[in-house]
Design a protein that fits this description.
The complex is a heterodimer of chains A (about 110) and B (about 120).
Chain A lengths: L3 E4 L2 E4 L5 E7 L7 E6 L6 E5 L3 E2 L7 E6 L2 E6 L9 E6 L6 E2 L3 E5 L1
Parallel strand pairs in A: 2-11
Antiparallel strand pairs in A: 1-3, 3-8, 4-5, 4-9, 5-6, 7-8, 9-10, 9-11
Chain B lengths: L2 E5 L2 E3 L5 E8 L8 E6 L5 E7 L6 E3 L7 E6 L4 E6 L8 E7 L9 E2 L3 E5 L2
Parallel strand pairs in B: 2-11
Antiparallel strand pairs in B: 1-3, 3-8, 4-5, 4-9, 5-6, 7-8, 9-10, 9-11
Classes of the chains: A mainly beta (about 110), B mainly beta (about 120).
Chain lengths: ~110, ~120
Amino acid sequence: AIQMTQSPSSLSASVGDRVTITCRASQDIRNDLGWYQQKPGKAPKLLIYAASRLQSGVPSRFSGSGSATDFTLTISSLQPEDFATYYCLHDYTYPYTFGQGTKLEIK
Amino acid sequence: QVQLVESGGGVVQPGGPLRLSCAASGFNFRDYGMHWVRQAPDKRPEWVAFIRFDGTNKYYADSVKGRFSISKDNSKNILYLQMDSLRTEDTAVYYCATPISVSGLFDSWGQGTLVTVSS
């Protein structure tokens, strides 16, 4: 199975900061990657698909980039509601696998 | 609007069976493939299984292959997950999910149902 390695595992930041989370795949997955946001007790919410496409209804401060094995999620200006855990997920082939997550906390 | 409602979770002994259901509404269920995704406490989500819209193809995570079976009843708009030979490591919240939008990824999720495997 393809392994997804996310970094950092946790991150402290302030409102208004720009933050970047990275995800590395153990093999070339083209651009078959999505990013999810999860808040406690809730199902994950899709933010980005196909590595860089913004899901409908998601604020434009979220952006994604990358291809092949290296990907990034950027939040351009953190808002209070953005403090959550973020996961990458590949959908290149079955089994799909998630990264281990990045917990974004308020500094 | 799209609604997915899971049921059937509970406490079960190791080695026992359990069947989860996911009732779908607000979209043409027969036209969509469906996934099960689970999340153990304080762990990353784990994709479990997928079934094509017409039920002709099914895929499973290695951790559940041979023990779990996914199915869908397009006449009743219900997705199922039959879980046999349950292990303590199967303890998790189980979500059904589907790619409703053009994303191709799971963008619609249920609220989840908790399965606890314990003696």
